[in-house]
């Protein structure tokens, strides 16, 4: 290659704004379509809901599995972001409660695709490690604040809370499960209170 040729090489460019926007629209659409129609809903329906061509969808996500994984990562990131936002709340106990309740609502909206998302995570050990690490750190940061404030007993860990939450959501395929689980979250949080606050009733579930 000549010196002139070397001089004309262009640096790599960041993704165009419209490409980033299209990708986000596809993820939003996939979330809605798969939640409503299950993991077998067509990718054509996802593209149609996103308002993009099927070719645009495949440029971002060449396989169904790639789309499932991207949706999974996006939802985990949103839960991690929520934990960061809740760290600014003046009441650390209620911040922890709100994060756990938000997870229940997340499971409720994912009923149609929970099996496919779980399969995507367990097939890919790196993806499972990523999600487990992010969620453990998210709930751990809220738990640490509550313990430091004397609101929560100190002999409970972040993984304990996640296991309890998964267990409470186990019946997500049954009618009316969400209302019962949200009530259980309140009972569970109340049971974790330190001695000086144990008599304080939790806020009424909405």
Descriptive account of the structure:
By secondary structure, the protein is mainly alpha-helical. The chain has ten helices and no strands. Helix 2 crosses helix 3, helix 6 runs antiparallel to helix 8 and helix 7 packs across helix 8. The longest helix is centred in the middle third of the chain and has 24 residues, at 125-148. The radius of gyration is 21 Å and the shape is elongated. The termini are far apart.
Poorly predicted parts: 1-6, 197-206
The count of DSSP E runs of length 2 or more, i.e. the number of strands, is: 0
Oligomer: single chain
Distance between the termini: 69 Å
Give helix and strand order, one letter per element, not per position.
HHHHHHHHHH
Arithmetic mean pLDDT: 82
- Nearest-angstrom radius of gyration? 21 Å
Separate helix tally:
10
Helix proportion of residues, in percent?
55-70%
Give the DSSP E fraction (strand runs of 2 or more residues).
Answer: under 5%
Fold topology:
Blueprint: H1 3-7, H2 17-37, H3 43-50, H4 54-60, H5 64-86, H6 92-109, H7 114-123, H8 125-148, H9 158-168, H10 177-192
Helix pairs in contact: 2-3, 2-5, 5-6, 5-7, 5-8, 6-8, 6-10, 7-8, 8-9
Please summarize what this structure is.
It is built from 10 helices and no strands.
Kindly list the characteristics that best describe this protein.
mainly alpha; disordered N terminus
